[in-house]
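Field: sequence (string)
Field: structure_tokens (string)

Example rows 1 and 2, in order.
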Amino acid sequence: MKDEIAACYSGRLPIVSSYTAHFGEEPCLSGTRGAGNIFFGNCNLRCVYCQNYQISQTWKTQRKNEVTIERLAEMMLELEARGCHNIGFVSPTHFAPQMARAILLATEQGLDLPIVYNTNAYDSVEVLKLLDGLVDVYLPDLKYADSADGFTYSKVRDYTLFARRAIKEMHRQMGSDLTFDSDGLLQRGLLIRLLVLPNGIAGIEENLRWIRDELSPRTAISLMAQYYATNKAATDQRYILLSRRISEGEWFEAVSLLEELGIEEGFMQEYESASHYYRPDFADREKPFRDIRDFE
């Protein structure tokens, strides 16, 4: 039925909470004029520490932000006209069909920018196969190495199993090489984000080993230090292990794994300032990233 909603509380029409030139992505995406990010409302996860929970977990409020697919295509063209370097769909999984149709409509009207699929990686391989040739850059999170943590902290079953399957499919489509233009802006490829969580909950070492062994040591990763306790993690004693930001020691332990495991490509945040980003008053400031090779 056309008005039926699924577990992500989303129906036939896409929900867009905002669209803007965003300067908080990796340098190869933000560039000088910003990534053209389209932030979808709702989500197929329920992360207790979600930094965007105001738009991902408030479906009754987000319903007012429904747009037509034609309007979604117009947003893409507007971002291109503003000079954005790419079109980045943030949390697109539950609106993948609508996204794909909007891309086709916008392309027919002259859109000529790389398409970035910025996802939590809890994606269907079958859907990703349908996106082959439509998406230029995959930007997935790999949140946990243990699916039990995925259930506890993101409320979904078998996260690690499905996320790794999805990322393998992304790698099949893109390979391990990143393609840049003459200005150093990413045009095509796979860049896997790893957010360091307190108390080892993200399983960084295990996930890095999986990336190296199952994909390639040349697969690009983005190591992120920006975690801070928000949403339920800040107030609910059940999630006390996530109730603080990561320590300097936890961060540098994660950093040391890059060289130890032979990870060759990607970016990493600066520890001192990264924890501030994605707070509402810092949302559009540039995150300081450095090339992983700078630390070899």
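Row 2 begins here:
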Amino acid sequence: MAVELKNIYKIYPNGYQAITDFNLKINDQEFIVLVGPSGCGKSTTLRMIAGLEDITHGTLTIDGKVVNNLPPKERGIAMVFQSYALYPTLSVYENMAFSLDLAGFDEDVIDARVKETAKILGLSQYLDRKPRALSGGQRQRVALGRAIIRHAKIFLMDEPLSNLDARQRVSMRSELVRIHRQCGATTIYVTHDQIEAMTMATRIVCMDVGVIKQVGTPEELYFHPKNLFVAGFIGDPPMNFIRGHVETGNFTSIDKFYNFPLTGVSDKIKNAAEKHDVVLGYRPEHVKLSIPADENAENYLKLKGHIEVYEMLGDIQNVYLNVGTEKAIIKVPPEKIINIDSDIEYYVKKADFHFFDANSENAIDL
């Protein structure tokens, strides 16, 4: 079922504007993730779709029907919250059956739906247990089951994995994607965790201070961020930035730590950056400690920094640098010996740099 938000505003009685001119069309069976820092308005947007928050201005349509004033129970949605909200005295079976029983469904229909849903979620052997006898991941699956069992066409999920530990979150991410594919319901998912967004979404809506900063596939936001905010938010660790000025095809950082010609960079970018304050961005994972033997050295820029601290993660090391007056993080192989309080040189391919206008903060190459 399709959902469309047109020119949506949310302004509270005290004058605080939480959402500004929000426009988004969500296609049937999409898995849309709203992502952004705390307070950016993503949960408020979800609650407006659910009917739990009034819309100040704009139009919300579900399946082509305007639903601004429609009560939540008539919108054909099911919502999964951050807390599991399970009834502690009821069994898994009874928790999942509760809404159908309340709606007056026949016992045979309820039994069939509970067992069908439990099979999808891998809960068949736990139907007689109480929530206290389940792990966090199992409780979250029961909460999902209460949404799935209603055969709703739209699932709204507000940070449903935030109460799980790191290992459970990883396994539940893949579970949610599998369940979405199996059920086929349009899913709108809210998280502040960009890794969840990147691994689960068909499209990501990246938000900040109530405004959409970019909408696109995970690949589009990672490889082609439209602005500094998206570039700095998407990616783990985030993109590194060097602020400076371009003059006669030469880039000089603000602190004069870097000064190099932009040879090999496309003429389109160089011409757009000429005589402008710009921000160069590069991702930690695009760093090389030496130029590959089969590649042309002219395609790379040599950078340097002073090692402040490092993290050994097993398959990779994150190395934190002082780079003039700026900071940077680079990823290096685990076998590389890192000496704190020493200098390091590294290389980044020119094609992997992103260019942003320092004033508008928009990408130059778009």
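free_text_note (row 2): Residues 38 and 62 are 27 Å apart (CA to CA).
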